[in-house]
Amino acid sequence: MDKKIIYSGIQPTGIITIGNYIGAISNWLKLQDDYDCIFGIADLHALTVRQVPAEYRKRALSFFAQYIACGLDHEKSILYFQSHVAEHTELQWILNCFTYIGEMQRMTQFKDKAAKHADNINMGLLDYPVLMAADILLYQTSLVPVGIDQKQHLEITRDIAVRFNNLYSPTFTVPEAYIGERGAKVFSLQQPGQKMSKSDPDPNASVSIIEEPDSIMKKFARAVTDSETVVRYDPENKPGISNLMVILSEMGGMSFDEIERVYGDKGYASFKKACGEAVVERLKPIKEEYDRLMGDKEYLLNVAKEGAEKARRIARRTMQKVKRKVGLVEQ
Ligand code: TRP
């Protein structure tokens, strides 16, 4: 039997953080054998806000290299750029005709982004969820690992798929949220009540997976803690320390018990240093591989090309079905 398809996309904006690594990427590595995974760099999505072209191009390629450096394997999974497969926008147009403006205006993310970029409330911002629906439906995706912020977009994707299937006949697999083994949630180093964000304006709040060791050590040294002196897991009363414990246990392979035993009363400074060192150590091979890949652009572009070809093959099949069902003349 065919394996189920998992699709995930990431916008090439901000940085890929240790939060993304612990919470998502490290789990994807394990999924690659049991599912047909498709990982797209959602480079059309991020055009909804202004990007500096040269920087944007570089960042998108850098994200792609970071995915590979983390262990996403182009021989097992499909790794590609969304913009390389024209079927995404082709399907988006058709799905647009089955999506209501009111539905899009009600999306929480649209409302947030429209408020944040009041001078640039473009059609793309409104239509963003339909492009995401196209990403997912194009590949007959069964499962989408999404965080809470993208849940609503997955819901509308399901609505659109069901609507289309009911109007014509079963065409799209109706996707579900992937709730498998969930990675631990990592919070900001500066505001431990908030999720570590890939686009936090405060550089001390998040750590990139390709960050220089010195900078990583400094950020951990500056991490917000509390006025006690004991290292103890207590997310409610000690969110900063508890977050650091999660990071140390995920990146350094230590249990909470062990951490409390070793660092419990040694003072925060030595605990923070241990966190920094564990992160540096764990990221070292990723950073080395990343640097090597970025020095070989031709290789990266070849992997991307091969990924796009594989993606296109699946996408075309879906498009043929869709076009026939809505009544377009065959080629
Ligand atoms: N919108 C998603 C985000 O900002 C990124 C994304 C684009 C995506 N296409 C997708 C996620 C398809 C899952 C499936 O996080």
What does this structure look like?
The protein has 331 residues and is mainly alpha-helical. It has 12 helices and 5 strands. Strands 1-2-3 form a 3-stranded parallel sheet. Strands 4-5 form a two-stranded parallel sheet. Helix 1 (18-31) links the parallel strand 1 (5-10) and strand 2 (36-41). Helix 2 (53-70) crosses helix 11 and helix 6 (123-138) packs across helix 7. It is globular. The two termini are 32 Å apart. The structure holds tryptophan.
Summarize the structure.
The protein is 53% helix and 6% strand.
Question: Which structural traits does this protein have?
Answer:
331 residues, mainly alpha, Rossmann fold, Tyrosyl-Transfer RNA Synthetase, 2 domains, two-stranded parallel sheet, 12 helices, 53% helix, binds tryptophan
Write the layout of secondary structure elements.
Blueprint: E1 5-10, H1 18-31, E2 36-41, H2 53-70, E3 78-81, H3 87-96, H4 101-105, H5 108-116, H6 123-138, E4 143-144, H7 151-167, E5 176-177, H8 213-221, H9 239-252, H10 256-263, H11 268-294, H12 297-326
The protein binds tryptophan.
Residues 7-11, 42, 45, 132, 135-136, 144, 146, 150 line the site of tryptophan.
- State the total count of DSSP E strands: 5
User: Could you state the order of secondary-structure elements as H and E?
Assistant: EHEHEHHHHEHEHHHHH
Rounded radius of gyration (Å): 21 Å
Global outline: globular
Structural class, judged by helices and strands?
Answer: mainly alpha
CATH topology annotation of the largest domain = Rossmann fold
Give the strand line-up of the largest sheet.
1-2-3
